[in-house]
Amino acid sequence: MTDIAGKAKETTGKVTGNDDLKREGQVDQAVDKVKETAEKVTDKVKDVLKKD
C-alpha cells in the first residue's frame, strides 16, 4: 500500500461519511511512513558498516 492509496481511502471516507474507511486510510499512511523510515535507517546502517 502506498501513501497515495491511503490518502485516497481517507478522502473517500471523509466524502462518504465512512469513518472506518477514513481511519483505515490514515493507518495506511502511517504504516507507509514507518516503512520508509525503516528503509532509510537500514540503508544508513549498511553505509556505516561498509565504511569499516
Describe the structure.
The chain has 52 residues and is mostly helical. The chain has one domain (3-51). The protein has 2 helices and no strands. The chain has helices at 3-16, 19-51. It is rod-shaped. The termini are far apart.
Roughly how much helix do the residues carry, as a percent range? over 70%
Q: What does the radius of gyration come to?
A: 16 Å
Pairing-aware structural class of the strands and helices? mainly alpha
Overall, the morphology is: rod-shaped
Q: Tell me the count of domains.
A: 1
Distance from first to last alpha carbon = 36 Å
Low-confidence stretches: none
Brief characterization of the structure:
This protein is an all-alpha fold and 52 residues long. The chain is 90% helix and 0% strand.
Quickly list its features.
52 residues, mainly alpha, 90% helix
Question: What is this structure's SSE topology?
Answer:
Blueprint: H1 3-16, H2 19-51
Helix pairs in contact: 1-2
